[in-house]
Task: inverse folding
């Protein structure tokens, strides 16, 4: 049985999943991290088990959803801005509205915690 303690990714697993999310092959991940492809395979497999993922694509997606990795672990802020800028203006407006709501919610939570 998997419990919460067993589902926490190690630093190496997070690094591997972040590079996989970026689109790197196992060989490229190994070169980037100066480890063997065998070590990449093991880390990726362990991450998949912990995240409940069937493959590398699911591992990346589940790691984002479970907050095991952040978008900034995968892309720079400039790259994120470039990706967002490629969207239609309506989508950008929707994203801006959603971000504003989330930020207002965080501010409200912060104020509530401090009182």
Result:
């Amino acid at each position: 049985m998997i419990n919460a303690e067993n589902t926490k990714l190690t630093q190496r697993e997070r690094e591997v999943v972040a590079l996989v999310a970026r689109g790197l092959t196992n060989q490229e991940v190994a070169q980037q991290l100066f480890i063997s492809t065998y070590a990449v395979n093991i880390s990726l497999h362990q991450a998949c088990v912990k995240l409940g993922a069937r493959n590398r694509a699911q591992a990346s997606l589940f790691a984002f959803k479970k907050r095991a990795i952040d978008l900034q672990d995968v892309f720079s802020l400039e790259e994120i801005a470039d990706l967002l800028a490629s969207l239609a203006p309506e989508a950008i407006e929707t994203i801006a509205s959603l971000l504003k709501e989330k930020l207002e919610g965080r501010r409200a939570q912060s104020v509530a915690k401090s009182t």
In short: The domain at 1-74 is CATH 1.10.10.10 (Arc Repressor Mutant, subunit A). The chain has a mean pLDDT of 92. The chain has two domains: 1-74, 75-115. The chain is about 70% helix and 0% strand.
